[in-house]
Structure formats: C-alpha cells, structure tokens
Amino acid sequence: MLLDLHTIIANPGSVPFSYESDISDMHFDSVSEFLSPLRAEGKVVNSADVLTLTATLNVKMLCVCDRCGVEYEQEKTLEITAKLAEDLEDEENPEIFLVEDNKADLDEILITAFVLDMDSKFLCSEDCPGLCHQCGKPLKDGPCDCKKDIDPRLAVLGQLLNDN
Ligand SMILES: [Zn+2]
Ligand SMILES: [Zn+2]
Predict the structure, then answer these.
(1) How far, in Å, from the CA of 148 to the mean position of ligand 2?
(2) CA-to-CA distance for 82 and 78, rounded, in angstroms?
(3) What is the pTM of this model?
C-alpha cells in the first residue's frame, strides 16, 4: 500500500495508519507457514522536516524448531522505526526509505524491517532438549524408552580408574 503523506510533507504533523501486509508467499527456512498477515499500527511524523515512521508489527507463524524439528506456533511483535526522505542523499543507505510523489511504500518498509529483525535461531522453547540420538524421538515431551548407554569415552575412563 502507498501511504499518502502530502498533508505533512511541508508541514509538521502526523499521518496514522493501520495496515495488513500479505507475506504468505515469503520463504524462510524455519517458517513453514505464516498464520496471519503482517499487521502494522503506526504513524509517520514530520518533525522539523524529518519524516519518521514508527509502528508496531505483529505476526503469527508456524515455525520449525532448529533442535527437535517439531513445529510450534509463535507470535512475534516488534517495534520499528524508519527514516523516510524525498531525496536519498546517500543512495546506499538502506535505512532510509524513499518518498515518491508524496507517498511511502508501506509494504517495502514494513517487510524490510520484519526481515531484518527475523531471528536466526528458532527454538520451540529456550531449553529444548532436542532429539534422542538413538531413536530420534523429540525429548521435550519426556524421555524415550532407549537404554541410556554409557558414553564410550566415560567407559574407558571407568576402566582406567578400575585398573588403578
Ligand atoms: Zn524443540
Ligand atoms: Zn531414544
């Protein structure tokens, strides 16, 4: 969506917005599905001729745990701030978004902020115990039936201690 900012381009003031961006076709390795659009509530403020967008983003997604491979739902909320400008003095600065014909491209701004904030690690819980290395069962629901073999390195150590 293009957000019309003409009322505040040369005047102090603010333009509020409430928007849902469809990100269902975006792909992340650890996200199997987006369960909601990327929702945003925010505003663009002109203060001393500097345009600043602030917003709260919220999205629900079905993620895959890096450790146990089990899917889990996660709701993510983040606060973003972005600078907007009519001219890009520094074309290479990715943190400034261009306002063209008095309009800001909300999809570009919101999705960029979301992607930059995307976690690099996905865990169903902070202390996910992962999978049993013998039977491959996720251990977060309780122990599996495998006999706990003694680590061979510990067995050697035990032997040495016995020998002495
Ligand atoms: Zn897990
Ligand atoms: Zn097991």
Answers:
(1) 8
(2) 13
(3) 0.80
